[in-house]
Amino acid sequence: xxxxxxxxxxxxxxxxxxxxxxxxxxxxxxxxxxxxxxxxxxxxxxxxxxxxxxxxxxxxxxxxxxxxxxxxxxxxxxxxxxxxxxxxxxxxxxxxxxxxxxxxxxxxxxxxxxxxxxxxxxxxxxxxxxxxxxxxxxxxxxxxxxxxxxxxxxxxxxxxxxxxxxxxxxxxxxxxxxxxxxxxxxxxxxxxxxxxxxxxxxxxxxxxxxxxxxxxxxxxxxxxxxxxxxxxxxxxxxxxxxxxxxxxxxxxxxxxxxxxxxxxx
Length: 265
Description:
mainly alpha
């Protein structure tokens, strides 16, 4: 009897020992720590989704020119916040256009002076100029949205700043896209600005109609008044950038050039 009892005890200990080290039971399996690879996969999936959203936002800029009414309706339904539009749509486009133009300034240069000499910019000079243009472009959108909201109030159409910001940010996209034309060495900054602003006004009308949503008798008046103030603001920004790249505003250019140099660019 004692022999059988000892055998039973030995067998129970063997089973417990096997269960502990092989993880046979469901309780032991659930207690196992999560694998590091799962966290990496989750992070990778998050990055891919973020990249997908940014690509969709950049494609939307093209669709505004091809299918403005349908694209504006989709933008109005999404009702994104200012921060979302800034990070997902506006900043990627500005970064792309500034990088392209900056590369062209370094690689091929730009015509300057009355004798039309070609000046090739250093990387630091190109970074300084494009930084200035990017900052002014962002300021144009924020200030332009406030001006459009004020115009809407003057027409007794109370609209939020987020609606005005959405309209201006997407409406001025053709103006920013036209900066790809500035990559050409002999392209006048006012020619590319005129093309971009004209396309922006065409796109902007649908934005005022579908995002700002004023009363029907006020649509045309709100659009014309908003177009005038936005055109004047955009022209002021273009004047500053055109004079800067021509070497007229050396103090402003030097400020951003020094900042780029300190960053080691």
